[in-house]
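step 4 of 6: structure.
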Amino acid sequence: MTQDIENIQKTLSGDARAYGVLVDKYQSLVFVLVRGICKTTADAQEVTQDVFLKAYEQLHTFKGTASFRTWLYRIAYNTAISHIRKTKSRGKAGEAYMHEVMHTASPVEEEHDSEREAQYDKIRQLVEELPPAERMLIELYYYKELKMEEVAYISGMTLSNAKVRIFRIRQKLQEAMSPS
Amino acid sequence: MNMDTLRDFFEDKHREREQEAALIPPMGAQLAALIETRQIARRKHYLYWWIAGGVVFVLAAAGAGLYFRTYVGSFFARLGEIFARITENIADYVKTTGISLATTVSGARETASSGIIEKATTEISAWPVQVWYVVLLAAGVALLLGVDSLVRHRKPV
């Protein structure tokens, strides 16, 4: 954390290489978060780069009330939502999750647990249909490194509001998955 | 489906993405170079705007001055009177209060120091209004630039 502050101060004094160090440190975390809403790895890399460029532009507003990582996630959250809206308006949405299935699931895995894969496919489809903000919120909620307070900060909600919203999204998903 | 399935789904997904992220080369150096290039371009852009803005301002001021020269003359004369009155008042105040205070505090008599103050106040009160106009304009611009710089270079707490 102190190392981050040091690099932030150096960056604000005009040292772009110090910012490069921060990028190297956090790029994987940001990538993992934005990958879910991008069609391809290249798209995700582009959004990740956008996140870091936006963060650089807004770095002077970082007050240190939250950790740099959480602050960065907040920017990633907003950038990802904008990206979903943009791609939806261009009619490119859809298949992101389906594409991911084809990309990541091997035939061996499919044979191993076809029932689970069917469930996963259904979840992917349901998550895909969620509004952008809800989709990102559920992603954040299940992101193992984040506490509920951090999720609320990143999404710009109060803690209680975030809890209620997540509860409703989970309920919605569960209801949609339950056999009628 | 239960909540565990949902959790498993997201955890699996995150695990897969982490594996994918591990294969991506570090983009820090590339991004730093991009930022530096952008900064240079932005500085140039700002410089051009300042120069262009300054030239346009001077031309517009000169044009307006020529066009309204009859009004401008009387306006500046009026403004000059007001400034002269203000500076005279300030000079009188400094002369009376300032010197008496200085002599009281130091115990010194009214000597060379009063001469300097007198000269300075006479000099200032003799400044034409155009000089005051420029001084106040420069002070205003400097103040705005100072505030802008402070806001931009604010350090994180």
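step 5 of 6: annotate
 - Chain A has a mean pLDDT of 83.
 - Chain A is about 75% helix and 0% strand.
step 6 of 6: archive
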